[in-house]
Hints:
Layout: E1 3-6, H1 17-28, H2 33-43, E2 51-54, H3 57-63, H4 65-75, E3 79-81, H5 94-98, E4 102-104, H6 113-120
Parallel strand pairs: 1-2, 2-3, 3-4
Amino acid sequence: TAVELGIPFSDPVADGPVIQQAGIRSLENGTTLRDVLKKVKEIKNEVKIPIILMGYSNSLMAYGLKEFTEDCLSAGISGCIIPDVPIEEEAVFSSIKTAGIVLIRLVTLTSSKERITEITAGAEG
């Protein structure tokens, strides 16, 4: 059991229409990645299950990977899903994994058996 918390993003291509609209409303109300991490930090002692963030690479890069990793650790984040980063480019985000935060990989309905094997090799989360 875990909670997946989406980071609002302007072009959430991996999300369905309901989540896309929720993200747009959140952005229109001024929600930032910093706000999300601050709120998680406030509630981390009350939540007894892992909290996983799902966000797009542009948001994390704009925030700064070092600062993002530090703030995730401070907030008690257990894992991250970065849906627009294929495993071939995952090394860019290795600082997150090195810090002990699990990078969760995704498999799509159209993934071939070979691709699923590649994605799940060494996968965590």
